[in-house]
Amino acid sequence: MxxxxxxxxxxxxxxxxIYIMGIIFFTISTFLAALSPSAYFLIFARVLQGIGSSMxxxxxxxxxxxxxxxREMGKAIGINVxxxxxxxxxxxxxxxxxxxxxxxxxxxxxxVPLGILTTILAITQLxxxxxxxxxxxxxxxxxxxxxAITLLLILAGFxxxxxxxGQLVIIAGLIELIGFVFWELRVxxxxxxxxxxxxxxxxxxx
Length: 206
Description:
Strand content: under 5%
Radius of gyration: 19 Å
Distance between the termini: 20 Å
Shape: globular
Number of strands: 0
Mean pLDDT: 91
């Protein structure tokens, strides 16, 4: 829900700024998850983690492609993608070992020092650099809200797709999607440039 709006904010205010804020936000929310006194608080902390994750997700690859020269870019992207998939493969196993031996909270505690280290590296190694390709433009707040609501309705609907109410929610989400597309085609600085899908066939099929 927030990845595209944060990507737009990063375009306006700077990739590094949003990236570092995301790491800090994710690290703090992870620490809160570790300290959760109840299941409801844990869910709240996980929502905050999602916000931080979206800030990291949309800026990390852009920073990599901006920092490395063309001849090194393929290797840099390959290392990044390999690390992501290694985490996806090993995460459940490591999480199971930590949970069984040290308890559920350990899977959150172990991330905190990594988050602190990553923040320090980002601040020191990216010093003096910033990437803001749309500096000075306005954020499309209406489009951002429409985009978030569209995803919320469609995903919530599919979670209850076997029920009539779920099917109604999906239909509402698709109607919202049409409204979002029409809005993005009209606004001067869209949160998601729909025209890219119409003008660039390679981008659209990708």
